Amino acid sequence: DVCDLIIKCPLLYKTSESLCHVCCPQLYATANNYHLLHSLALLGAAQCRKPLLAGGLLTAGMGLFCGALYHQAVTGDPRLRKLAPIGGTLLIAGWAAIAL
């Protein structure tokens, strides 16, 4: 459970009260996993041929994809979920920019 993890971590304890009202913990966990994975990919983006392009695509993709999922998970409001496919496409483009 997201609340159990937050309460166990002393650094996040102060915000645990507001985050324990997550409407959909599974959606929050999915956003968190994608956010972590693509944050690590940003480290590799610095070593590719076009780091600014790859980093920009990954950052924009994380913001749109993970941001839409975080927003829906915390608020229960699905209005931003239409941004998730755009963010996913940007993430794929970011991975392609790293590979090429």
UniProtKB/TrEMBL annotation:
<keyword id="KW-1133">Transmembrane helix</keyword>
<dbReference type="InterPro" id="IPR006696">
    <property type="entry name" value="DUF423"/>
</dbReference>
<comment type="similarity">
    <text>Belongs to the TMEM256 family.</text>
</comment>
<dbReference type="Pfam" id="PF04241">
    <property type="entry name" value="DUF423"/>
</dbReference>
<protein>
    <submittedName>
        <fullName>Transmembrane protein 256</fullName>
    </submittedName>
</protein>
<feature type="transmembrane region" description="Helical">
    <location>
        <begin position="52"/>
        <end position="71"/>
    </location>
</feature>
<keyword id="KW-0472">Membrane</keyword>
<dbReference type="GO" id="GO:0016020">
    <property type="term" value="C:membrane"/>
</dbReference>
<keyword id="KW-0812">Transmembrane</keyword>
